[in-house]
Amino acid sequence: MVGLIHTILFNMVDQLAGHEKTRKIREAAGVASDAEFRIDENYDDAEFRNVLAAAREQLGLTQQQAEAAFAKAFYEDSKERWPTWFAISKSGRDFLKRQPSIHNGFATGVSDPEARPIIRDKFRLEERDDRLIVHYRSPNKLCGVYVELAKLVLAHYNETADIEHVSCQNNGDDACEIHVIWN
Questions:
Q1: Backbone torsions φ then ψ of 127, nearest 5 degrees
Q2: Alpha-carbon distance 126 to 79, whole Å?
Q3: How many angstroms separate the first and last alpha carbons of the chain?
Q4: What is the DSSP string of 75-119?
Q5: CA nearest 103: which of 116, 84, 119?
Q6: Of 65, 83, 105, which one is at a domain's C-terminal end?
Q7: Which of 19, 40, 51, 133 has the most CB atoms in a 10 Å sphere around its CB?
């Protein structure tokens, strides 16, 4: 997982609960108080899971609430950091079609070539006339973040679509399959 994900999570906690809570989360997760995370470095997925679990505990959030809060923080950061992604997409569907490529593009910037497939292999997309089918597989099991981000992207473009979570790693499936369906 690229370091930007850690950074956004810690920034989110700072905004929601302050620096002291962020310090406690770092301590509980075993992350040094002065550790900085880089966008061009891959970090251990287990470390991120520890950070997220500590954040959930310190903030008193359920998994779903934590994923929704993180999705919103990531969405807001992305609009500022990469406005071109939003400008070149003419619709929510257009943006969501690009999402796996955008995600996988982070792998090209990682300095360790052996870590690139770990990032790149998390998402795969199928396109059909009425829907996009997202295949997601990650030890982080953060499919809920994708679902919440999809909702935010759709709202950004003033669109509606049904989102069906057909299979889920959190329910013991091998991978998640998420359908975004336009009527």
A1: -115, 130
A2: 25
A3: 34
A4: HHHHHHH-HHHHHH-SSHHHHHHHHHHHHHHHHHT-S-GGGHHHH
A5: 119
A6: 65
A7: 51
Q: Is 28 helix (H, G, I), strand (E, B) or coil?
A: helix
CA distances from 64 to 34, 54, 113, 170 (A): 29, 15, 33, 12
Range of the domain at 162: 67-181
Q: What CATH number has the domain bearing residue 109? A: 3.90.1520.10
User: Residue 30, Cβ neighbours under 10 Å: how many?
Assistant: 11
Find, among 144, 156, 108, 102, the residue nearest to 125 by Cα.
102
At 25 the pLDDT is: 95
Taking 50 as the pLDDT cut, the residues of the chain under it are: none
Phi-psi region of 40 (alpha: psi -120 to 50; beta: other; left: phi over 0): alpha
How many whole angstroms separate alpha carbon 124 and alpha carbon 8?
Answer: 24
Are 85 and 170 members of one domain? yes
Give the pLDDT confidence score for residue 105 in this predicted structure.
63
Say how far residue 14 (Cα) sits from the centre of its chain: 18
pLDDT at 172: 96
Collapsed DSSP state (helix, strand, coil) of residue 41:
coil
pTM assigned to the model: 0.89
